[in-house]
Amino acid sequence: MSAKIQPLTQRSSKNSFRHLLSQIWKNRTLYLLLAPTVIGMVLFQYYPALMAFWGSFHSWDGRRASYIGLYNYEYFLQDTRLIQSWINIVQFLIFNLLSLAVPLFVAYLIYRLPSARHRYIYRVLVVLPLIAPGFVFIVLWRWLFSLNGGINIILRAVGLESITRVWLGDTGSALYALMFMGFPWVDAFTMLIFLAGFLSISTEMLDAAAVDGATTLRRFWSIELPSIRGQIKVLVILTFIGTVQDFGRSLFMTNGGPGWSTMVPGLRMYLAFTQDADYGYASAIGVILFVIIFALTLINQRYIQGSEG
Amino acid sequence: MQGTKNRLLSMLFIVLALIIATSVSAQDELSGELTVSFWGNVDEYEAGLSDNRPWEATYNLIKEWDELHPNATVTFISQPTDGIYDRVRTQLISGTLPDVVAIYPNDTFLEGNIDLVYDLTPHLSEKNPYGEFDTWGEEFWYDLTLGLRSGAIPNGQVYFVGNALPSNIGQLVIYYNKTAFEEAGITEIPDTYAELMSACDSLKAAGWTPLFADAAAGPTLGWYSGWIGEQLLAPDVTRIFDAWGRPEAGNYIDEQMMMWAIDKGVVTGDNPYVLETARLMNEMQDRCWNEDWQASEGTVEYFLTKRVAMTHNGFWGLPQYIEDPTRDFEFGSFVFPLITKESSDLATLEVLRRYGGLEGGEIGNSFMIPTTTVDNGKLPLALDLLQFLTARSGNDQWCETQFPPCIPKDQAVEEVITDPIVQDQVYGFYNPPMSPETSVRGIGNSDWTPDGSFIRLLGLYMNDDITLEDFGAQLQTEYQRLAEKAIIDHPDWDTAAWPEP
Amino acid sequence: MKNSRIFNWFSYTTLTIIVALMLVQVAMLFIMSGKDSSQMATNPLLPTFPFNWENYVTAWNLGIRDYLGNSIILSFAIVIGNTILAVVTAYVFARYNFPGKILIFSLILALMMIPGILTLVPRYLLVRDLKLLNNLWGVILPSVLGANAFQIIIMRTFFESLPEELFEAARIDGGGHWTLLARVTLPLSLPIISSMAILQFNGAWNDLIWPLLVLNRDELRPISVGLVLLSTQQGAPTIGVQMAGSVIASIPMIIIFLVGMRAFIDGLSTGAIKL
Asked: What is the reported pTM?
């Protein structure tokens, strides 16, 4: 920047600064309206996020903290249980992503129903189970999986006595039992989002396809599925973020056991926090999970932009 | 004339007495709200639905105190027992605890934060206003400084007072169904681990599930492994005491001693005693336990519904078993038996060791006062309540409702309980009696690993998911990580001055 | 375009089976809520008679009464507080220009990148330091003030799509910020607001971990925490009582669905398109 221009820019910046101030003053009501949201956001989101980074470098019991550098991260990397919990979370992730196909399938079938009235009825029926809150199913499925519970009763009744077991007490079955819990895996929200996507496909496109004599399968692959690409991508990201963070099932159904067979990083964090009162280590795990979520969301975002641009 | 005078005098006396009485009660400055964090669900005590007799009695005593002081009101706050120590610790640190806290003191959960608890020691040498002795300390049936000792509490200081059985009873016993034992042809209760195992075999052959265990709910695996570990690891305990000196309170290992032992290689995850503990646990699982021990149904009372022949429980379970209207069998109790050479080449003990304090009292219902209560000006109220509860009269009143009953330290059980059926029911609590040699608490504690690793590894090994060697190797890794971390977290430990083994 | 008869037959059959599998779980809650221990032992899956309504009384007295009240207070406070803040915030961003708008909105957008798991521990300590542990505000405040980015973004998009002429007309009539918001924006966006509110309610009603951490006193617990702890503790009540508690826990959701089902489904569908 040359010396000649500098006074000019200074003057104009002074002007614009005054202008800015007057603008701000003029809009003071707006700032006032935004104030609760902004203050709350900083207090309950940004400040704790920064504290988590700070805490991850400290030995911290909630009362005293002493700086220990990268020790918590080293401790994390030396954790022999780490591999198991990552394998578990990856399995959860693959399963949850694949099971998005079920609500997609249901949404598609509803969308293709010949009568609008029937479409509405089935839509209501899929949403109806939401009346029972999610935590209630923890209670129900704990019983279903027990030695004399529903699943084993059914298996015995159909002559499959040999595969009955204490489903949550067996290292070979506990993780898969937790996955099976949502059976038949139709999340109403997900289904509604897919359905809305299908219903917004323009009829001209479909009519054109009909003229071409496209089969149902062909029509699905080449027109309908690509049309809801946006919805699929959003749900993939949401599923991803949700799964990496989730540890409620492992906590309430098995406490991560038997052994570490249903342990996930989020639960390890929760236990370090509540059981071992090791806030520094818990923060370090939180930071690592954040970095993973952040990185993969960015990759996903870039991929979406790339494929659409 | 004389009669009228007398009548006048007596009337005068009554008026005077009334004036004195009102002025005394006016001087009673105990007013305000006192919040009490209470053990378990208060609604259940209120409705008489609780199976916990000791806390129910304490609850009723507190209500009595409340009525005694019309200007003071007690507000109870239920503390669910799941995770109660972790929760009380966080609330203590954050200064959000109620004015008085009901909790068993025998835990190291106060480690590093004992300065946040009000020190009751000076008050114990003063008179208790409700008491009959010169000092408050004499009101107790037991020696507080010995009975309430834990790793976090400095010698001689008293932070907890409460009601307790004056006799020395262990925390946990095994209850057994006599009908089951008869059906299996077992005539005598097991005195050794080997006898326990053969009892299990006979019970199984007679169609019974011998012994209840539940890894998923509660600290069951920790209790069983603790019983075995305290016995088998006795040589390691000796090595630790050789270096640190044996505490006067008995065979107590505190956190610093344990971390030292791990750091110096005295206790290792793969040392023969630890591996033998795991092996015996596995043997017991194999021969005794219910099929669904890894995740049993929490709603089923396995013992009372006769699904198992034996179960473990504390003294608080006794009234529940005695009074159950559906019970159609007799039962007895015995302590977890001695491990002899017959079961393990590594067994060294001649005399059984049992969980619990040297003195009576540590199994009682205790209270502490957080320092925040002092800041809130509630100390006089809180102190008065505790003095009321723990005066000799309060403790006697508490004892009346207890079962097993309060028995003075040196009296034989048989002299107090003469009914042979009841004698069998309480047998395990008094036989063999507690002594400085037999009381233990420390090395068998399964909490010496982060994230409950010890129990988790044990579960894996007993589920045949890993071998005994893997168990030892992985446990050793966990131990070392724990010690390294503990040393970092404890700048107050002078590790340079640690003794050599 | 018409479907083949086979395809229609296939669709109806498959949908009916899937829906039945979902509904049978809900039905089981009710069926099992009427069983005593002996009915549970002999015939746990099918309906049995007599139906033991005592289970409901037992559950109610075991604390469900308090839990239900707490859940209602918490959920309504969170939904109302959150909706007001989100509507105001979204409205300001949708209809006005002011210095710093982009910066502030980016900060809100970036919230989507802060996972709850990162902030869990420090947020707990913050609530502790604010002396809000064991206080319903300790659940309400972080949830309301923590800024629900998703809600704000959806509403902003919707408010922006409202035709400017309506606002012009109101402004000419001398309407201020409040008039524009209350007379123009709100009536037009009631469906989306109510569907967002139902979504929020569902989330607040189901929340487990945070209330479990913050509310340690049994009498303050919401029904989610209360019921799950009741069923996992040692010596838990019978399955029948647990299921009776579960059915009670469903009642508010049933009411909301009866009243607002249509708004919910339609609103969510419109919101979904905006995604």
From this structure: 0.85
